Amino acid sequence: MSGGGFIRLPGGSVVVALSLPRPPHGARAGLYDCGCRVRVLVHAVNRQRALTRLRNLGLRSVYLRGNTEPPTPDEITAVLHHPDGLVWREAPEDDTESWHPIRALLRPPPARPSAENEPAGNERPAA
């Protein structure tokens, strides 16, 4: 279960904050998949749209139950100043770590070419 919360802004939109398990893929996949948690912030028109934005990115089992960990004023400022309105940070209690765009969390690891797919020596790939 994820801890999280939301806050309604004066303009009617909301900022949703969720603490989620780190996805198994991403910028630091492999050795760093230790069950760490990340804090994800989403700015959207309403709570349902915020959760839908996360589900559309592949985080399928995201739910907001209650309002136990609402976003802090610093978190609200961070997400409002980001062009995508969707940021994350691995150590929520560490104020020195900066916020990252969601693309950095969900980026698949770089593909490594296998020896079978590389042309050998003077051979040309088939057309």
TrEMBL record:
Residues 90-127 are annotated as: Disordered. This is Uncharacterized protein. It comes from Streptomyces glebosus.
